[in-house]
Each structure stands twice: as structure tokens, then as C-alpha cells.
Amino acid sequence: MDQKSVTALILLDLSKAFDSVHHPTLLNKLRHIGASPEVVKWFQSYLTGRSQFARIGMSVSSSLDITHRVPQGAILSPLLFSIYVNELPLAPRHSSLKSYVDDSKMFLSFRVKDATDTKEYLQEDLSRVENCCSELHLLITPEKTKYFLIGTRQQLQNLPTDMCLNFLGETIRPVPSAKDLGLIKDTNMSYDCHITELVSSCMSKLPQINRVSKCFDKETISLLVSALVMNELLYCSSAWSNTSAKNINKL
Length: 251
Prior knowledge:
The chain is flat. By secondary structure, it is of the alpha+beta class. Strands 7-8-1-10 form a four-stranded antiparallel sheet, with helices on one face. The protein is 41% helix and 20% strand. The protein folds into two domains: 6-22 and 68-186, Alpha-Beta Plaits; 192-249, no CATH class.
């Protein structure tokens, strides 16, 4: 925005990402990044040989071998998934793609006069990301994929009316705001939506703490406020701290 550019931001939604990890592909990637044969063999033992079944009341299904997924809740799982998708940021040709474990975003800054060309670039890059995910057995949910344009009000008003994208048979239209890693971003980076939701969340918790305030000592109440309110209040504050004075007064 400081450089008079608009940024297209696409928040990709991977469906059941950890459950989609293909074991042979992951083991090949471990070999490729330099893991020794003994380490690869250890991970093969860790991942394979597991099975699952369904149970309803007293009825139990037959057991089924698990050929995909990394164990849910395991400390190693986010690291293994990051290794599994380490080539995903290389898929787009024109845009940048960044990932935090299974949360990925694609973004591209452009001048208003280049909006038509940028739309074609985004369309091409989405197709390349789709192909990469398909090779990795990952499924992107187009209905939950969020796409919005960030810029000043004047810049956004001068954009072409049709900046929609086609993705996996769905039309993705720009949205006014979207949540990314717990932070609600909007088209002007004003953080109005984030502050409004943040204030509402904190104000709903404070009366609940107040109801039980006579049951605990001051130190315990202080811990409750710190854990349930202050932590939420300060989350990502370094990102949204340049919001308006009006929003700061709300807080």
C-alpha cells in the first residue's frame, strides 16, 4: 500500500491435511533431504503398521490398514507435514506462497493498471498449486478458500469490476475480510473487524470471571484474567497495533 500497489491474497484451505500424507512419498522426501537409511527405516516403522476400525455401540468393523496420515497430536507430525509440502512454495510462477504447517497463503502485489494481467497470473498460479497438491494427495477445499484484495479505498474503487477467479470448478469472489492464523485481515488493513470481535470476546469473558470472583483470592483471579483475557488481547498485537485511535480506545 505504501508503494501504491494492491495485493491479492488467497488463503488456501487444505481438507484433512494431516490425514492425507502419503507414507511412501514422505519417506522419499526424507531420503531426499539427507536422512540416513537408519533414520528413514525408523520413520517407516513409526508411520506404517497402524490400523483403524469403527465402533458403534457393541458393533465393531473389520480392521483397515492406514496408508496415509501422520499421527494426530504427535510432536513430530507438524515437522513431518512441513517436510511433506516443502515443494509447495515453488509451485506458483508469479506469486509468492508461504506456509505455516498446513495453513498456506498465496499473494501477489500489482499496480491497478495491471489488474487484468494479474488476474491471469493468479489463475495460472492457482492451477499450478492445484497440480502440486494433487501430486501430494492433498485436497484443497475451494468453498473454504478465501480471496481478497488489499489496498487503499481509492485503489480498490479503480479496480475492474470482475476480479473473480475460477478454482476447482468454483468461482472465488473477493471477500471484505478473512481470518488468517487467528488474525482477521480486511481489505484496507484497518483491523476494524478484528478489534470488534476481540472486544466482544473479552467482554463476554470478563462477566463470567466476575461471577466467580468472590470464590477465589486476588492472585487466582489475576491468573484467570491473564489467561482468558490478556493473552487474547495481546495476540498478534505487533501486527494490528497501527490500527486507528478509535479501535485502541475500544480496547
